[in-house]
Amino acid sequence: MTPKYKRILLKLSGEALLGKEKFGISPEIMSSFAIQIKELTELGVEVAVVIGGGNIYRGITGAAEGVDRVTGDHMGMLATMINSLALQNSIEQLGVPTRVLSAIEMNKIAEPYIKRRAIRHLEKGRVVIFGAGIGSPYFTTDTAAALRAIEINAEIVAKATKVDGVYDKDPEKHSDAKRYDVISYSKVLNKGLRVMDATAISLCMENSLPLFVFNSLVEGNIKKLVMGEKIGTLVTGGKNNG
Fold first, then answer.
1. What sign has the CA pseudo-torsion 5, 90, 214, 112?
2. What is the pLDDT of residues 110-158, one digit of tens each?
3. Do residues 141 and 52 make contact, with C-beta atoms less than 8 angstroms apart?
4. pLDDT attached to residue 128
5. What are the residues facing 184 on neighbouring strands?
6. What is the largest CA-CA distance in the chain?
7. In whole angstroms, what is the distance from residue 229 CA to residue 104 CA?
């Protein structure tokens, strides 16, 4: 079968890397992501990744604890770089060429982010990992994922979460929560559904970039998404079922 998407941007949360750990990176979870990403490259899919840093440090949490917000966000960007380098290492151990591009210049450990360079790496079959968000405070890695996806002409943003899609309320707290198969950007914004932050959703909506929300902790789900199987929730500009 032919993959439904040729070029995707995979958004991984830092928290997903925790696994059963309370802090840091679970080797098992990191290895699982690396294996699934390798499977995509074997299908000929061009893969870009944005990864959060919440397993190490979140700027907004630091602000609540008295850290200056700008300083805290810069610390969070550095946390995303730690995760990016760890993911790069795991993927390359599987024999897949990978490049980390940073929004903040760190020439000793990563290439600076340049759109044309990123696209060229993808065209050559390299997995591209975007680190340090967009390089500015007050913007989340969700926004970075939407922005980078638009810049590299990705066909979809695949938002990896711990749940199997978008619900009308928290499924962990409400047994009667309803999952959407398809939902519009505007409904996500109007209902205040916690899919991505409002800036990221607005970017996707303004640029007609589809967003797919799925459970990344189920082995094989990333491949299923790329092959067009019906898992998770598609957020788009079209009609929705809710």
1. negative
2. 999 999 999 999 999 999 999 999 999 999 999 999 999 999 999 999 9
3. yes
4. 98
5. 236
6. 53
7. 37
d(C-alpha 206, C-alpha 200), whole Å: 10
Residue 180 and residue 144 in contact, taking contact as beta carbons nearer than 8 Å: no
Burial class (CB in 10 A: 0-12, 13-18, 19+), 192: exposed
Cβ atoms within 10 Å of 170's Cβ, excluding its own: 10
* Neighbour tally for 137: CB within 10 Å: 16
* List of domains in the chain: 7-236 (3.40.1160.10)
CB 37 within 8 A of CB 91: yes
Q: Which residue has the tokens 């789900």?
A: 221
Task: For residue 104, give the nearest of 69, 72, 128, 80 by alpha carbon.
Answer: 80
Output the six-digit token pair for 113.
Answer: 């982010």
Q: Tell me, what amino acid is at 121?
A: H
Q: Look over the chain and give the mean of its residue pLDDT values, rounded to a whole number.
A: 92
Separation of alpha carbons 115 and 111, rounded Å? 12
Please classify residue 216 by burial: count the beta carbons closer than 10 Å to its beta carbon, then call 0-12 exposed, 13-18 middle and 19+ buried. buried
The DSSP code sequence of 45-106 is -EEEEEE--TTT--HHHHHHTT--HHHHHHHHHHHHHHHHHHHHHHHHTTT--EEEEESS--
Calculate what percentage of the chain has a pLDDT beyond 70: 96
